[in-house]
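Incident log, structure service

09:12 report received: a user says their structure output differs between two submissions of the same chain.
09:20 pulled the input from the user's history:
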Amino acid sequence: MRINNSNDRRIFARIRKSLPIRILAAGQDEEYKAETVDISAHGIGIESKEKLSPQTRLEMWLELPENRGPFYTRGEVVWSRALSDTNKQRSGIRLEKAELIGLAPILWR
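09:34 re-ran on a clean worker, output below:
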């Protein structure tokens, strides 16, 4: 599943998965909702209406399939860019720990 690209420095494969995720940025009091685009053991790609600046620390609650409840994790925004022809942003988030590796059997479904 790993993409063979000389510019791709990822160690873990990405799973294309659309799941709801709630996000709280450091220093903010209000959560907002986003959607995952892809997930790996070390990172999450998301789309949101909010602009996230690189190096912003986040707390996140990933809504797992089959009513398994939210999965809490933390991370930092690595990059963010506007999506053309929409009012959404696409962001890449590096997770604080490789916590999602144990969720692979759930996410592959």
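09:41 both user submissions now match this output. Likely a transient worker issue. Closing.
09:42 reviewer note: The radius of gyration is 14 Å. Confidence is low (pLDDT under 50) at residues 1-8.
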